[in-house]
Amino acid sequence: MIEEKGILFVLSGPSGVGKGTVRKALFEKDTALQYSISMTTRAMREGEEEGVDYFYRSKEDFEKMIEDNQLLEHAQYVGNYYGTPRTYVEETLDKGNDVFLEIEVQGALQVKKNFPEGVFIFLSPPSLEELKNRIVSRGTETETLVMNRLKAAKDEIELMDNYDYVVVNDQVDRAVEKVQAIVKSEHCKKERVASQYKKLLEVSN
Length: 205
Hints:
Layout: E1 8-12, H1 19-29, E2 34-35, E3 39-40, E4 55-56, H2 59-67, E5 71-77, E6 80-85, H3 86-94, E7 99-103, H4 105-114, E8 119-124, H5 128-137, H6 143-157, E9 165-168, H7 172-187, H8 190-204
Parallel strand pairs: 1-7, 1-8, 2-7, 3-4, 8-9
Antiparallel strand pairs: 3-6, 5-6
Helix pairs in contact: 1-7, 5-6
């Protein structure tokens, strides 16, 4: 019996590229993937549940976890910490489940440093012009903010070399199919399965 460990898949890319949309569409088609639950120091909101929406911790506990390298990545946003707990990810992978993390580029680079065995997928816009159109169509950004986001996107696209795969998000369905193909191919990689098959040979001898 081949017992395969799960794989951590990290989907990342510039703001406005459609990471959330692709992740949502992917999860509607692929129920085997498990979404990574983040940890936060912000207060639990009405209707939220511990271990479902977030893992809720005090600022002191969170900072101790940073110190002990118990987070694959973390950031501060509006006075609260957010991060990905290492233990949760590792325990889920040990059960044979794939973990899927959708995150900003800087967070993905932190994860790569702390968990290099993950699979890193860069979601790219078809062009910077198209990315600008998507950001503008949200209707929430001023002209200055749009230009700042585009400059940040250019800088992030230059970090593409840190990733294992690049998926262009020209059409959501097509992008989802490519991510699914990456998941399948990663499970067939010799490096991942060779040790398991060698065990099979030992049993048969």
